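Long-time lurker. I teach an intro course on protein structure, and each term I like to show students one example going from raw sequence to a predicted 3D structure in token notation. This year I'd like something fresh instead of my usual example. Would anyone be willing to generate the tokens for the chain below so I can use it in lecture? Attribution to the forum is fine with me.
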Amino acid sequence: MLARKKASSTENNRRGFTIVELLIVIVVIGILAAITIVAYNGVQQRARDSKRTQDIAVIVKSLELYYIDNGKYPTSSGSTTINAGWSTTADASWANLASQLKTYANSLPSDPVSTPNVSFLTGGYNYSYFSDPNGGGNYCGTTNNQMFILTYKVEGSSQSDTLTGDCSTKPIYYSGVSNYRVRK
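-- Reply from a regular --
Happy to contribute to a lecture. Here you go:
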């Protein structure tokens, strides 16, 4: 009878988990959850950056089609966030550019994170467009609307600076954002 009681108490001790075992399981679950969250955020950033790349391609294509038909790029205007010479998705001025390009694009895209009333100069996620309507040679000697600057900001990779055209000097380069610049 005594031997039987010892076996019972040993069996009772083996039925549950120790506190150390439970803590190990909790820590492992926490580590897996942290890895999943970090991986998920990276995927979201890459998806938004991919959308930005596609959006910029659509905008540039529309601008080039406009140039083919009109011999100049559309005038940028109306921004209250940057200055009146720009068009940006940060404010209502993007509609000015969209109305000029309506023949070439059904609608102009805006940044997936779009930050209202915050320009790219102060860290906003917006598309911004500028074309020099007065020429004057400020941008590699261009004449009226023979150049444009399109700025946007990416999250998951480094910013890029694309320059197309025959410019021997580097025109305005905005740091902290990606620049797509064309000079005819």
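Some talking points for your students: Residues 19-70 form the longest helix (52 residues). The longest strand covers residues 147-152.
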